[in-house]
Request: fold
Amino acid sequence: MNFDRALFQDPTFCGCGTSYQESRVVLFGAPYDGSASFRPGARFGPSDMRRDSWGLETYSPVLDRDLEDARVCDLGDLELPAGNTPLALERVEAVSDSILTAGKLPVMIGGDHSMTLGAVRAALKVHPDLHLIQLDAHTDLRQDYLGDELSHASVMRRCFDLLGKDRIHAFGIRSGLKEEFEFARSHGDLHAFTLEEVTSLRETVGGLPVYVTIDLDLLDPSILPGTGTPEPGGVTLAELLKALNFLSELKLVGTDLMELAPRLDPSGASTAVACKLLREWLLLLAPDPQ
Reply:
């Protein structure tokens, strides 16, 4: 039987149908939540965001730009083995490396935050002077969580192992062990509770390459409750978009948007927020159309 493809919904994120060859920005999903320490469900984030994105316009009236003009390719979701974090990280690293070596900018949507380690590994191989910018509610600096050194609660500690002192710049942090806060202050660049100080990066990183990781629990649960470890006292969507507008002016070589657990918010509001945030972020990252 022959099917008319026009009858089927596009499986990509809205407006991201550019071919890989013609793209500058490449989106892919990492549907993994095998290291979730509280509430699982982030593995459904990428697929639900693609589906719900079709209720969103491709045009941003704030930026006066349209995703259909932005040359973004959506590769779809990686196939990741449930419960095997090392192998999942290898696959994230491999696809990130391919995108980077092709001279394109990888954008990963998750998935729990542990997958960021794979993307950072790839970015560091291409950019040895890489700095990491963390927008997050949690420190994620535990040496391990219940013996698991690859937990999402330890992802920034593993990134520190790769990057070393003073190359992780954390903003919006409002939860963690006392020891984690002490480690962050003495070994990194910690700006707790707020995003207002992202402008300091103009001096601290200058023109060096940066990877930006966004954990959606950065947002207050009143705005985005559908995440594995919600933490009251977060920032607003407007505050986050203002920070991203500034960060887009840095030498950004990779980024991710992690920890949406859509089934934990049956209203669908969390997925709608994540979709709009991703649209704006992609438009800030994509080059101006020719």
The longest helix spans residues 85-101. The chain has one domain: 23-285. The CA atoms of residues 134 and 170 lie 5 Å apart.
